[in-house]
Amino acid sequence: MSTATPAASIIGDRLKAETAELHTRAERAPLQAALIQGKLDRAGYAEFLGQMLLVHDALEQAIESAAEKHHGVRAVWGSEQNKAALVREDLAFFGVDPARVVPMAETQAVIGLIRDRSAAHPEVALGLHYVLEGANNGNQFIARVIRKMYAIEGSEGTKSLDPYGPAQRETWAAWKSTLNAQQFTGPEQDRIVEGAAAMFQAVIDVSDAVWRSVGKGV
Ligand code: HEM
Q1: Domain-located, residue 1
Q2: Ligand 1 pocket, Cβ-based, cut-off 6 angstroms
Q3: Does some domain include residue 176?
Q4: How far is the CA of 20 from the centre of ligand 1 (A)?
Q5: Which atom of ligand 1 is nearest to the CA of 169?
Q6: How far is the first Cα of the chain from the last one, in angstroms, to the nearest whole number?
Q7: Which residues of 99-111 are buried (b: 16+ CB within 10 A; e: fewer)?
Q8: CATH number of the domain that residue 198 is part of
Q9: Domain containing 129: what range?
């Protein structure tokens, strides 16, 4: 297929199908499993939020710059999808100063990956962003477990996990439909899917590193 020819495959379908196995691995990562089962204490959850703050910060910079360079990224991403500000609010609720969060080696590696890959090809940022935007689908359930477990009234401490509240399902459907309406060449699609796969692995790596640091893993 020529690089000038729009790809026949639907990018959203490719993303879901080609990262399905990684999704299964991500939800089975011990830290993610502990979150959904209500077995992670506040300190562990806050530690994970802190590392994810650094990932969101790096991604937001990358996708904002990618949106300026690529029409498809510009059409799909909007600053209302940014979550770093919500992570900061969640951290504040748990008494963590975001400025004092120190990146773990795994987090530093993700930050480097985000910068390098999206600088070379802006559409890669969309694949990276797909993973964190799509994660809201599962995170809304984790948010419910956390509120119950830590006896939190309202959304305090869980805003970044459940940014759209009851509108989650329709917001995700609209996001995917806008994504699917964009024209990407075959090679661009391949890079978007590769970016998504790399981000899934990155979240697994960060989850495992936090799990070890809170003394649960080896
Ligand atoms: C305990 C952990 C998790 C649970 C229970 C969970 C659950 C779910 C559920 C129920 C959906 C909606 C599926 C659908 O309607 O088709 C979903 C979608 C998704 N999740 Fe997760 N998830 C978890 C962890 C994660 C993690 C850690 C990530 C990212 C690293 C992630 C990324 C995604 C993405 C990208 C989608 C969108 C798939 C698509 O429609 O293209 N999930 N998840």
Answers
A1: no
A2: 15-16, 23, 26-27, 32, 36, 130-131, 134-135, 137-138, 141, 200, 203
A3: yes
A4: 9
A5: 15
A6: 47
A7: eebebbebbeebb
A8: 1.20.910.10
A9: 11-213
Question: Which is the closest atom of ligand 1 to the Cα of 33?
Answer: 1
Instruction: Please give the distance, rounded to the nearest whole angstrom, from the Cα atom of residue 177 to the centre of ligand 1.
Output: 17
For residue 133, the ligand 1 atom closest to its alpha carbon is: 35
Question: What is the 137 CA–ligand 1 centroid distance (Å)?
Answer: 5
Q: Which residue has its alpha carbon closest to ligand 1 atom 13?
A: 137
Query: To 10 degrees, what angle do helices 11-18 and 186-213 make?
Result: 40
Task: State in Å: Cα 195 to ligand 1 middle.
Answer: 16
SS3 161: coil
Residue 218: inside a domain, yes or no? no
Has residue 37 been placed in a domain? yes
Whole-number Å distance between alpha carbons of 1 and 83: 37
For the whole model, what pTM was predicted?
0.95
Task: Pull the structure tokens for residue 207.
Answer: 């989850």
- pLDDT digit string (tens) for 124-147? 999 999 999 999 999 999 999 999
Number of structural domains in the chain: 1
d(CA 173, CA 149): 29
Q: What is the per-residue pLDDT across 38-92, written as a single tens digit (0 to 9) for each?
A: 999 999 999 999 999 999 999 999 999 999 999 999 999 999 999 999 999 999 9
